[in-house]
Amino acid sequence: MLNKIIVRRFSDNSNYTKAIEWSKALSITGATQVLVQAVGFISGIMIIRLLSTHEYALYTLANTMLGTMTILADGGISTGVMAEGGKVWADKKKLGIVLATGLDLRKKFAAITLTIALPLLLILLRSHGASWLMSILIIFSIIISFISVLSSTILEVAPKLKQDILPLQKNYILSNFGRLILLSATIFAFPVACTAIISSGLPQIWSNWKTRRIAEHYADWNQRPDVTIRAEILQKVKRMLPLAIYFCFSGQITVWLLSMFGSTTSIAQIGALGRFSVAMSIASAIFGVIAVPRYARLPNSKKLLLKWYATLNIILIIFSLIIISIAWLFPEQLLWILGKDYKNLTNEILIIITSSCLNLIASSSFSLYSHRGVVMRADIGIGIGILGLIVGLLIVDVSTLRGALYYSLFSAAYGFFVNIVYGLIQILHTKN
């Protein structure tokens, strides 16, 4: 009898209920992301080991440009959709209007992005020894991958706001296994960059279709774009787009610098080392699925926001220290995974993992405050960013791989400080 009373009291306790809810969400998302990233890591190692250094350099350039195109085509749209959706997440019709408006804007931004990015990619590929045929094939595969990832972030908004985690996680798993199977079936016969890129894009098209089906339970897809919602989203885009353009350059600063001043081999090395950011990808995915939507739904309570902002960042810092310690203690063992072409990069691996950890915390802090509709003024954000870039260029030689990595480390530390402090300032200025 006493045990039943104790259990009933615990189950009636709101803190206990929230703890159980968070534990379930974390266990589902954490286990899924470990599996997803493990499959992605295996795919990445297959690409590194089967492609020649030259082909892997082309793959790195193309993948970097794909990431840049994705950021530019978004320009803050998905953040605006999450912020607007957070206001009406319980209303299926209104949420459908928000999503339809976001998708309509994303298509227009994507068309502009393609016309700017593809000629630049062609120039970079040709300057690093790609033939005309290979350049065209890579660009074709990039277009397919770009179209496939175009809508995924907006399609996921509804289930994320509703915290319907399990279907999304199943979707991630099937999509990544599809990529691994398609990659295994093609790259042994055709070990070239375009094969690796298109093997990633095609399963994402299927994944988007499944995500749309999941979102149908929470959003009405028959709604039309709304002028008022578009204006609200564009207000955020106007503030975020200049920052997005800046982050396109600063976020992949090492690859861009080496593509202009370094060798093709250095590009391949930086791309291979970047595979070890998989641990940060797991943390970032869990953070984006669980922490960010819940933080976006919090009421305007200064005390509550400060508590969760500090707690979430402390967790990320502890996680980052563990990852850095592993890289410091076992660099040779980690580099063995990449193959003999990359075995001498023992110092470089510690630098790039430290940079990745700092970028993880900085981007997570940015996600927390931006998904509540708070965006740093573009002139201030870009001014602060350019100041950091100039200072870094003055003190670091970026023509070598290690120099570019040190520059990336300085840039990451700078971004870490700016985003943490700005998030705190915005919370302290919150009106209850």
Provide a descriptive summary of the structure in words.
- The structure is a single chain.
- With 432 residues, the protein is mostly helical.
- The chain folds into 2 domains: 18-235, no CATH class; 251-432, no CATH class.
- Helices cover 84% and strands 0% of the residues.
- It contains 19 helices and no strands.
- α3 runs parallel beside α10 (193-215) and α17 runs parallel beside α19.
- The radius of gyration is 22 Å and the shape is globular.
- 47% of the residues are buried.
Task: List its traits.
19 helices; 432 residues; 2 domains; mainly alpha
Produce the secondary structure layout.
Elements (H helix, E strand, L loop, with lengths): L1 H11 L1 H37 L2 H22 L2 H12 L3 H36 L4 H19 L1 H4 L1 H5 L3 H22 L6 H23 L11 H24 L2 H9 L2 H10 L4 H20 L4 H28 L1 H8 L7 H25 L7 H18 L5 H28 L4
Helix pairs in contact: 2-9, 2-14, 3-5, 3-6, 3-10, 3-11, 3-13, 4-5, 4-11, 5-6, 5-11, 6-10, 9-10, 11-18, 12-13, 12-19, 14-15, 14-17, 15-17, 15-19, 17-19, 18-19
User: How many structural domains in the coordinates?
Assistant: 2
Report the mean per-residue pLDDT as an integer: 78
Note poorly predicted spans: none
Number of strands: 0
Largest sheet: none
Report the structural category.
mainly alpha
Give the radius of gyration.
22 Å
Proportion of strand residues: under 5%
Coarse morphology: globular
Give me a quick take on this structure.
The protein has 19 helices and no strands. The chain is mainly alpha-helical and 432 residues long.
